[in-house]
Design a protein that fits this description.
Blueprint lengths: L1 H6 L4 E4 L13 H6 L18 E2 L27 E2 L3 E8 L2 E8 L8 E16 L6 E4 L2 H8 L7 E3 L2 E4 L1 H9 L9 E17 L2 E7 L5 E7 L1 E5 L5 E6 H17 L8 E7 L1 E4 L10 E9 L6 E11 L13 H12 L6 E6 L7 E5 L16 E5 L2 E5 L4 E2 L1 H5 L12 E2 L22
């Protein structure tokens, strides 16, 4: 199990930007101009803020495990040695190699309906004002009901099926040629398990670099704010601060039994986007990520698959990015790569020759290079209609470089089957160059 565990120490970020500024998605210009008190970026230490972390670093959990039971026992295709969400393993062949992968749910060839509980922590922010005495509250409450009523959890009609959830529709399109008719991977039941407020100090210590590359601590501003078009406040929050706040929030909820190993666990924030000190609040922002926490003192290894995602008010980003774009992005990526071990042949970002997009099965990442990233889905809510904007996903045949695609209708993307009209262009080497 130790060998398998080491493979799990991988991570993924939802960057609604790409590393090169020439084609990076950032806050829309109007939103950038509205940021209050933004300062120039300073060199900073790179932070892998979504690296899976052991609960043993949380003192309140020392000596015990809060792992819940898993339906893995009923799924013989599941990854051995872990206690987590139900999952199955398959593989594909590409570029002279076999590429194994593990996904949530049950094997499509077996059929069956898999229900994965969703447990959500709704997080508000309490921002310390410049006077260091008063605070400003940024509540998550206005966005909770809309999030719960979004296509991620409510049913709609798609080419791959009627009255199904968004991620299920994508999975059914992906495995359409091999699935049995009634195969589904559903997120149910969905429950808000806690309401939490994170206090955000005006300044905090962050790791920064000097001209010689030496890293030291420096006092920096923790957050910046601005107004969104709908009258709400958006917050650009230092990633180094959020890293610890996220871990503490999740670890405490696990210790209290609110988050469980058999569920997709989600931390929901309002209009909260993460910046790094080396790029500043007007640079590349992180709108969500998926990762996991684990307890390596217990066997089988308990693994809590966990997502951070923010509601996104309209007008803050371009390319159709708003409301639940980040949510859908992270949910589908967590379903397709829950344990962050699914490698694929390195691929180029569509339309950007020579730029390595990734070598992991992250189904939303290729779409980040497109001018339109979301797909409108209208849901009736309390007698009214609201159009959500979940993200378009690349399908498995796109990463396989399969011609033709064996997905629904020969597609490489879904629900917009025209977004990616051909398979991935191989990067060249099988893996992307490591970033310094």
């Amino acid at each position: 199990m130790r060998k398998e565990t080491s493979r799990l120490f991988l991570t993924t970020l939802f960057f609604l930007t790409i590393t090169l500024p020439s084609f990076g998605q950032r806050l829309a210009e109007s939103a950038q101009r509205s940021i209050e008190g933004a300062t120039a970026p300073i060199p900073g230490a790179k932070l892998d803020l979504t690296a899976p972390r052991s609960l043993r670093t949380a003192p309140q959990l020392a000596g015990r495990s809060s792992a819940a039971s898993s339906s893995n026992k009923s799924n013989p295709g599941g990854l051995p040695g872990i206690l987590s969400v139900p999952n199955f393993s398959r593989s594909f062949s590409s570029r002279g190699q076999v590429w194994p992968f593990t996904m949530m749910g049950n094997d499509p060839a077996r059929g069956r309906r898999t229900e994965i509980p969703v447990r959500i922590i709704a997080v508000s922010l309490e921002l310390q004002n410049e006077d260091l005495v008063t605070t400003t509250r940024v509540p998550v409450a206005p966005f909770v009901r809309r999030t719960l009523n979004s296509p991620n959890f409510r049913e709609s009609d798609y080419l791959s099926g009627k009255d199904i959830q968004y991620a299920d529709a994508v999975q059914r399109a992906e495995f359409f040629s091999v699935m049995k008719k009634h195969w589904h991977t559903e997120l149910s039941p969905v429950k808000i398990v806690d309401h939490v407020t994170i206090f955000v100090p005006r300044t905090t210590k962050a790791l920064v670099k000097d001209d010689k590359g030496n890293v030291s601590e420096k006092e920096v501003q923790t957050y910046f704010t601005g107004p969104a078009d709908d009258g709400s406040t958006f917050v650009v929050l230092l990633d180094q601060f959020f890293d610890q706040a996220f871990f503490d929030t999740v670890a405490n909820a696990i210790g209290a039994g609110r988050l469980t190993t058999d569920a997709l666990n989600i931390v929901l924030l309002p209009n909260t986007f993460l910046f790094s000190v080396d790029q500043g609040p007007q640079g590349t922002l992180t709108l969500g990520f998926h990762t996991f926490l684990f307890d390596d003192s217990v066997s089988p290894l308990p693994v809590w698959v966990t997502i951070f995602a923010s509601w996104i008010s309209p007008g803050l980003f371009e390319a159709g990015i708003e409301d639940v774009t980040a949510f859908s992005h992270e949910i589908s990526e967590a379903i397709n790569n829950p344990f962050l071990i699914n490698s694929v042949p390195a691929w180029e970002f569509p339309g950007f020759p020579g730029i390595c997009g990734g070598d992991m099965l992250e189904v939303a990442d290729p779409v980040e290079a497109l001018n339109q990233e979301s797909f409108p889905v209208t849901i009736r809510e309390d007698g009214r209609r609201f159009t959500f904007h979940p993200q378009i996903m690349a399908l498995l045949p796109w990463f396989e470089d399969a011609v033709p695609s064996d997905a629904l209708g020969g597609a490489y993307s879904f629900p917009d089957t025209t977004a990616l009209s051909s398979p991935a262009v191989p990067f060249g080497p099988l893996t992307c160059p490591k970033q310094q």
